[in-house]
Specification:
mainly alpha; 75% helix; two-stranded antiparallel sheet
Length: 495
């Protein structure tokens, strides 16, 4: 089983190399990418099952024992994130293959997409902070290329904004690594969990807050979120969907991992995290209400929904963390679906601006349904997955007597519903209004069926999350308990 652990990283990198060699053969590139990501998804599910039934799966690269070598570890948290990410990545790839011009005009799409996949897997599986930094840089490099595919002026401008902010976060991360290593003599996360206990409380808290800021930039937390709504809407819809569904969640994963592993109950900044979560929720949803463009509305919603995940962390209880993990699962699927649907709207109606289109659901009823279900889920309408996840967080907040953050979360949910009705009323309802760039309803563009198939699969998957909410919550609760009592994680790595 340990031999499978590096595969989610190695296979995409090998696939990227093969895809470069097949640069002029798009069909071959597609076959390589589909085969690699399908294999990665299968392996990720196997690792999740193994981590849940038998404990964390650990591999020491090149035979060097921790903390000297490179450690890869898949516990329940990493397994959940890896499995959901792998399924999402292959769904978006299928969509991109169908979308006109998304990947067929860019030979670099497939190798760079696979490098991004490898970076995401490396971030979830790594057992030390330095390799987490390497994983972030892999994602940054690949993200910039994907963000600027096509070379449009707006793409280049937003890509530069994204890169500059990310490089600032990277420099701050390196500084944090240097300070932590000078204080503890290691960057292995399991060993840090032991050695952080020997540091003065003030130093421990300072390191925890420093890492929270670093990963907060990656996760787009308030006040470090302004780069996200400026960057994401300019990219092609499959790329935006990947960014929306995954990249910020890697930052959330890193925050959860470091805050629970390095800080004990006496030094965890729970109140500060809850305040940041509340403001992030409010600012994000208010920004969404103010927009008149579907991708920008959805981009601000990313910021708002990240607040819910951080809210669960800030409670520092099994119920809170379980709710946060369930919310992550829901959000990755639903948010990816919404951005892919927005791409379908732009192809079919010719624009994503609410002022330019209307009555889309009257012309394309299936498209309207594909948007409506995830939109209602994001707003937390029962019995969809968003309601289940938000209910778990609200219940955890009430159990911890955190009434203020619970009130904010409910208010934000109502405002989210309002912003979704704004999209529905402006784009999907009312008098039919399409732009000159709209596609012919009776003669859809080539590949449209593949795009609908991919989005439909994700919609069904979101419904499955709602139906299987009980087992998924129990899995999340076991992962949360493992996070709050990291003894097994430490012992499995260090022996």
């Amino acid at each position: 089983m340990n031999a499978l652990l590096p595969m989610p990283i190695v296979l995409p990198l090998l696939g990227a190399a093969l895809s470069i060699m097949a640069f002029r053969h798009r069909i071959v590139q597609r076959m390589i990418s589909l085969a690699v990501l399908s294999s990665t998804a299968t392996i990720s599910c196997i690792l999740l099952i193994q981590a849940d039934t038998s404990g964390p799966v650990v591999a020491q690269m090149s035979g060097w024992p921790a903390p000297f070598g490179i450690t890869l570890i898949a516990d329940r948290l990493a397994g959940i994130m890896l499995a959901v990410a792998a399924v999402m990545l292959i769904s978006v790839l299928v969509y991109a293959i169908g979308q006109p011009g998304a990947e067929r005009n860019h030979g670099a799409f497939h190798p760079v997409y696979l490098v991004l996949s490898a970076g995401v897997a490396a971030a979830f599986l790594t057992g030390d902070l330095f390799n987490l930094f390497v994983a972030f840089e892999m994602m940054l490099t690949a993200s910039y290329v994907l963000l600027t595919l096509g070379g449009g002026r707006e793409q280049i401008r937003s890509g530069m904004t994204y890169v500059v902010i990310s490089l600032v976060a990277s420099a701050l991360f390196l500084t944090s690594l240097a300070l932590i290593y000078s204080a503890t003599g290691t960057v292995n996360m399991a060993q840090l969990a032991e050695r952080f206990g020997d540091l003065p409380n003030g130093v421990r808290l300072a390191f925890g807050l420093l890492l929270f800021v670093v990963f907060g930039i990656k996760a787009a937390l308030f006040p470090l979120f302004s780069w996200l709504p400026d960057s994401y809407p300019t990219a092609p819809s499959p790329i935006t969907a990947v960014f929306a569904g995954l990249l910020t969640k890697v930052g959330v994963y890193a925050i959860i991992r470091t805050q629970t592993l390095f800080l004990d109950p006496g030094t965890r900044p729970g109140t500060l995290i809850l305040v940041v979560a509340s403001i992030t929720m409010l600012v994000g949803v208010l920004g969404a209400i103010a927009q008149d463009d579907i991708p920008r509305i959805l981009s601000f919603h990313i910021v708002s929904q990240i607040g819910y995940m951080i809210m669960g962390l800030g409670l520092f209880t099994v119920a809170g963390l379980a709710g946060a993990l369930l919310y992550v699962i829901h959000h990755i699927i639903v948010k990816t679906t919404l951005f892919l649907t927005a791409g379908l709207v732009e192809v079919r109606a010719g624009s994503g601006r609410l002022a330019a289109i209307g009555g889309v659901s009257r012309v394309y009823p299936v498209l309207g349904l594909l948007f409506l279900l995830p939109a209602l889920s994001l707003a937390g309408i029962p019995p969809l997955s968003g309601f289940v996840a938000k209910f778990a967080l609200v219940e955890a907040g009430l159990s911890s007597a955190q009434y203020a953050v619970v009130a904010v979360s409910i208010l934000v949910s109502l405002l989210t519903l309002f912003s979704m009705t704004k999209i529905w009323g402006g784009a999907f309802w009312g008098e039919v209004q399409l732009t000159d760039e709209a596609s012919d309803p009776d003669d859809p563009p080539k590949g449209m069926g593949v795009m609908y198939l991919s989005v439909g699969f994700l919609v069904v998957l979101s419904l499955v999350v709602a139906i299987a909410a009980g087992p998924l919550y129990n899995l999340s609760a076991r992962a949360a308990d493992e996070l709050l009592t990291p003894g097994q994680y430490v012992s499995e790595v260090l022996g």
